[in-house]
Amino acid sequence: MKLNIKKIIIASLLVWIIGTVITWLTCGWLFQWVYTLPPVSLWKSSEAMANPVNVILGALIGLIVAFLFVAIYAVIQKAISGKGYRKGMRYGLIVWLIGSLSGLLGLPLYMNISPVVVVYWIIQALVVNLINGAVVGVVYK
Q1: CB–CB of 95/69 below 8 Å?
Q2: Which of 8, 18, 34, 84 could form a disulfide bond with 141, CB atoms 3.0-4.6 angstroms apart?
Q3: 128, 14 in Cβ contact below 8 A?
Q4: Distance between CA atoms of 8 and 82, rounded to whole angstroms?
Q5: Which domain holds residue 108?
Q6: How far apart are CA 139 and CA 94, in angstroms?
Q7: Is residue 90 a contact partner of residue 81, using CB atoms and an 8 Å limit?
């Protein structure tokens, strides 16, 4: 199997940019109130989160995750039914079910975290995975 590196890079950058913008708009602005729900001692200070090293490391981690998201799609795309953005959205749903949903559901059981935050993260992850999947599906159609 030959992978198209150019498509992987383009789709990875698009997925990374979209995910970053959505996260900034939702977590940093529109739904920022969710992080004020008790317990708040879980979060680092705004100054610590804005530390340039943390910002750069967060961006690099996001880029690596975007690359993995796209590279795995490139490898398994033939096993997913549909075409174009619908195929990509199916992939995004699969990633969400296996990764985000299963990983986030248990957080309130072993972390001191508001269940509302967890519900918010689950919904946000679904939206982001569906959008990113659609983008990858369009690039690979």
Answers
A1: yes
A2: 84
A3: no
A4: 19
A5: 5-139
A6: 18
A7: yes
Taking the model in full, what pTM does it have?
0.89
Cβ of 94: how many Cβ atoms within 10 Å?
A: 16
Encoding tokens for residue 85?
């953005």
Per the structure, the count of domains in the chain is: 1
Distance CA 24, CA 41 (A): 21
Amino acid at 127: V
Residue whose C-alpha is closest to residue 8's, from 76, 73, 60? 73
From the DSSP assignment, how many helices (H) and strands (E) are in the chain? Answer: 7, 0
Token readout for 28 is 């940093």
Angle CA 64–69–73, to nearest 5: 140
Query: Which pLDDT tens digit goes with each residue over 28-62?
Result: 899 999 988 888 777 788 888 889 999 999 999 99
Which residue, chain included where needed, has tokens 């690359």?
Answer: 67
